[in-house]
Amino acid sequence: MSVIGAAAVAVQVGGVVAGAPLLCGLMRQVRARLEGRAGAGVGQPWRDLRKLLRKEAVTSLGTGPAFRAAPVLLVATTAVVAALVPLASTATVVSGSSDLIVVVALLALGTVTLALAGLDSGTAFGGMGASREMTLAALVEPTILVSVFALSLPTGSTNLPAIVSGALSDPDRLVSPAGLLATAALAVAVLAETGRLPVDNPSTHLELTMVHEAMVLEYAGPDLALVELGAQMRLTVLLGLLASLFAPWGIATTASAGALAIGLAVCAGKVALLGAVLAAAEVFWAKLRLFRVPELLAGSFLLSLLAVTASYFLSGA
Amino acid sequence: MSAAGGTLTAGVGAAGLAAGVAALGGGHWSADLPWLLPLGGVRLEVDALSGLFMAVAGAVVLAVAMYAAGYGRASRTASWVLPGFGAVLVLVPAAGSVSTFLLLWELMAIGSLVLVLGEHRQRRAVREAGVWYAVLTQLGFVALLGGLALFAALAGGQTFPELRAAAGELGPTWRGTVFALLAVAFTSKAGIAPLHAWLPRAYTESPDPVSALMSATMVNLGVYGIIRFGLDLLGGGSPWWWLVLMGTGGVSAVYGILHAAMASDLKRLLAYSSSENMGLVLVGVGAGGLFAADGDRRLAGLALAAALLHLVNHSAFKGLLFCAAGSVVRATGVRDLDMLGGLRARMPVTAALFAVGALGAVALPPGNGFAGEWLLLQSLIHGLAVPGMATAVVLPLAVAVIALSAGLSAAVFVKAFGVGFFARPRGEAAAGAEESPPAVLAGMGLLALACAALALFPGELGPALDRVVIVAGAEPAVGGGAGVRLRTVSGGLAPLWIALALTLAALATATLVRLVARRPRRTGAKLWDCGGGAPTARMTYTATSFAEPLQRVFQHVLAPEQDVSVTPVREFAYLEERVRFRHRVPDRIEHRLYRPVLAALAAAGRSARRLATGSIHLYLGYGFFGLVSLLLVLAVGW
């Protein structure tokens, strides 16, 4: 039990670290093809990371420990989240402490460290990015936690493996109004948390429109590699979390090697599919003006609130 | 501060801590001292609920005494009032009768007022803050006096056991009246909106050790009062009491943190954040009361334990943050974040300690604020099991309020820490800062240790919290152990393991990067800034600019005021001599609620002036007519 459980954690973390650049490459490739370009290939982000890691580490003068530690902390928080979230298996050694609120808080911790690094650089762009990122993060938080509320109602617990296995044994709750509303709300929140269109444009080159990229403008070499890897891992983990919550089929519920292998393969497939859909959708979306984003987030908050009330009133309580 | 005063204060704190811990361990004692005062005498009674507040107050008094001794600069009055104020803070929760409670409460108000006014000779704003504080505190005291006198008269006795015994037989209207009066008094002491107007002023203008002491201990006593009188002595009540409390708590949480997000004065920011945290505690207490009123004592225990855990955490991190802010003010003489910056290299220990406090305040793991908010969210989420339309509407909104205030507090403390301590100094005051003396750092270190212990082993408080919620009439909900285990609902939190996992992951990442990298040596380079080259310190982001997006998002709530006046050079419309830009975010509740009342009072005073023209004949006439009308009333009435 515990050997396979520990292996499941290692597989999840390893899978996220190895798969995140591939997912990013896949999404760029899908986008390139839809726009009529050839694209650089799925492996390009990995090649970029390798190149950056081999470069000299450069520290900007006038920055401090926060600037240097932030990339490592960003990757570390995301790795811990990858270990906690049931991506491939619900029967891991850490499934007892895999709490949805803890996961949300750890992701927020990563955001905070990066925002502090942006301020530590002492440049106008760093401060601007940090300010915008924290504003958006603050506005996303209510949506996420109220969706957590809606999701934990049928199970009576915020424990993630319990929620996922509960949905597996009772798939009706996924297509109930509450489940669908919570899915929609959480999907918008994930877009905002990972800095995708229409909230933020990850491939922008115009500094004045940047949110996430503005914070990390001063990074170079291995530090930049970690920042990029961290962002890619966040996207992978959050898409995986969405997949596990709203389409949990295929995930390993027992601690056997076969189930774990199937779970990993199915999870990779689901995340790749979600990523491809997101990339295809992004071709047709434009980035929202920064001060229109709160409207989008308010809408998603309303959806999550409706999810809670729907699950309360429709369950006949 | 004199050495004798410091030692005395530290002794008071240590005694309070010891007594509180003994009471939390299950001790219970009471003392009747009828000879000590005329009329009611003095009665002290200590149970687990008192013990928790005594222990928190004692610990903070101890740490702040050490800090104040190193801080110096206190007036002679302050160094003799401080031990007495510390003693009163420890003793208020031990009061066992109405007269004792009122006496200690008023002593606390007067003592804190004297301390707030400590620097009145240096700054005018201190006097104004003192007036606001005195008026609001005394109004609260009037409400408290009315409520408790009514309660004691209805109960026919004034000791707490007598009140407890008689509360069940009172009519719901009387109980509601008593509770409403007490709630006004206690929420004003806890700095809950709309009665918070004194808090940002008093905390900002009082000497730094005093702000730390007040923010970490005195506001707690408002919550103590609500739990002691509302839940214990009145024995709970109808759900509307608690819904109103939850509502004001929620409003206060969001309003407080929004103003903290707008503030660029470091101490004002921390003060508004106190208003937010007390709001969250009140949401928890309100939820506890609501569940208890609906008969679910297990969930009530969970919500109350969450509120109390958050209160203890808030005391630890807010005391630390105010002390660290004081250390900054001591070194630079500046509270304005827009003038600070670059302190992490000049005051490394203060910066590190501020970081510990800020990590607690943002309620993210591995900080100490997380466990309390996690527990609070758990209690609200499970609270939907309590039937009723009110819970179905209120609880999701409460979760949203907690989430929004947690998200905003992350922005607030990123601003406070990132702008105040990082990058480069924005002024000469910050550039010439030096680290504070060891005694100051030691006082802060004690509070930081408390933060770390609470962050990693919150479960150790579990048994104590269980004893406290039993006093408040609820069932114990939190088990012991290193992590937090819920007894009545499924769920658990292991902060120690989260912290270990984070450390391990960070170490592994750093090691892997080092193994893969070809050139492990770091080199320094000029800031790039998109090719702009290293910007000057004036070009960096300030606290005001950091808050700008949030201000635009919430402009309908905050109603910022902006004023541009352009003075052209005479006869040249296009050549400007001077452009003046003024921008501020006023406290809207204060403007809309207090200013009209103050203006009406002033107008009434002015119009009453017409009655007193200075003529003796007129005054004699008033006396004559007054006497005659009184006699007429008596003659007609009887």
Quick overview of this protein structure:
The complex is a heterodimer of chains A (about 325) and B (about 650). With about 325 residues, chain A is an all-alpha fold.
Produce the secondary structure layout:
The complex is a heterodimer of chains A (317) and B (638).
Chain A (H helix, E strand, L loop, with lengths): L1 H33 L9 H11 L2 E4 L4 H20 L15 H21 L3 H32 L4 H10 L2 H4 L1 H17 L18 H4 L5 H26 L10 H28 L8 H22 L3
Helix pairs in contact in A: 1-2, 1-3, 1-10, 1-11, 2-10, 3-4, 3-10, 4-5, 5-8, 5-12, 8-10, 8-12, 10-11
Chain B lengths: L2 H22 L4 E5 L8 E5 L1 H24 L4 H16 L6 H19 L7 H32 L4 H8 L4 H19 L7 H8 L2 H26 L5 H24 L3 H28 L3 H36 L10 H4 L1 H14 L7 H14 L6 H33 L6 H4 L6 H19 L5 H10 L12 E2 L6 E2 L1 H22 L5 E4 L17 H11 L1 H4 L2 E8 L7 E9 L3 H21 L7 H22 L1
Antiparallel strand pairs in B: 1-2, 3-4, 6-7
- Interface with most residues: A-B, 86 and 86 residues
- Approximately what portion of the residues of chain B adopt beta-strand conformation? 5-15%
Treating each run of at least 4 consecutive H or I residues as one helix, how many helices of chain A? 12
Give the N-terminus to C-terminus distance of chain B in angstroms: 64 Å
Shape of chain A: globular
DSSP E strands of chain A, number: 1
Which sequence of SSEs, written as H and E, runs from N to C of chain A? HHEHHHHHHHHHH
Q: Bin the helical content of chain B.
A: 55-70%
The pLDDT mean of chain A sits at 90
Please indicate the percent range of residues of chain A in DSSP E strands (runs of 2 or more).
under 5%
Number of strands of chain B: 7
Largest sheet of chain A: none
Given helix and strand content, the structural type of chain B is mainly alpha
Count of distinct structural domains of chain B: 2
Instruction: Round the mean pLDDT of chain B to the nearest integer and report it.
Output: 89
Uncertain spans of chain A: none
Membrane topology (chain A): Multi-pass membrane protein
Keywords (chain A): Membrane, Transmembrane, Transmembrane helix
Subcellular location (chain A): Membrane
InterPro entries (chain A): ComplexI_Subunit1, NADH_UbQ_OxRdtase_su1/FPO
